[in-house]
């Protein structure tokens, strides 16, 4: 028996609950999808390896591998980590501050130099810098929209734009993996489920790539609407192979 972190809900009920469960899995899959038809309960069980829990993994026909995981971005082993930045590239709170504390002052220094030459960014903009002492090679500073500042359709468009900008920077640097948080979902107020669906929808099955790319969407276990939004979007938009799920949500 292997202990998995779990989230579960009654089918057609948007409320998800968090827990742990011992499950017999000979292969010790990263993710197992369980559906108790008699009780109408759907469970997503993620195997925690070190500090990383994987909840969904999909391989698209173009070779793109998409993973949804709970992890610490400050320690995550990806070529590129995306920072949810503000327009002034100031690391004053949330993920940005955590990344700065792990990277060292050089991360803020390089952002300050960019800003002194080019001015503030706008919502939908992204730039790439060196990563300081972080384990990744680069940090992409992505400015998502403040949800209250725009109508819903404009906010969604700007969030899609900044994710596309980030992915273009990843490809331009020849990198093979990128970890993306739920941009704009913190103090910028973007609803978590809409945020997750919007970000995931930028990666359709036929997104053209010059090389295989591993894209990891990082969420927190307590952010159930975020996790649910990612997986629901992959279900409805993917004709790829679900590598770590026993079925589709």
Question: What does this molecule look like?
Answer:
- The chain is of the alpha/beta class.
- The chain has five helices and 13 strands.
- It has two domains: about 50 residues, no CATH class; about 180 residues, 3-Layer(aba) Sandwich (Leucine Aminopeptidase, subunit E, domain 1), CATH 3.40.220.10.
- Strands 5, 6, 7, 8, 9, 10, 11, 12 and 13 form a nine-stranded mixed sheet that branches. Strands 2-1-4-3 form a four-stranded antiparallel sheet, with no helix packed on it.
- A hairpin with a 4-residue loop joins strand 3 and strand 4.
- The longest helix has 21 residues.
- The protein starts with a strand and ends in a 7-residue tail after the last strand.
- This is Macro domain-containing protein.
Task: Show the helix and strand layout.
Elements: E1 2-10, E2 17-23, E3 31-36, E4 41-46, E5 48-49, E6 52-59, E7 65-70, E8 80-85, H1 94-103, H2 106-118, E9 126-130, E10 138-143, H3 152-172, E11 177-180, H4 192-200, E12 214-219, H5 224-237, E13 241-242
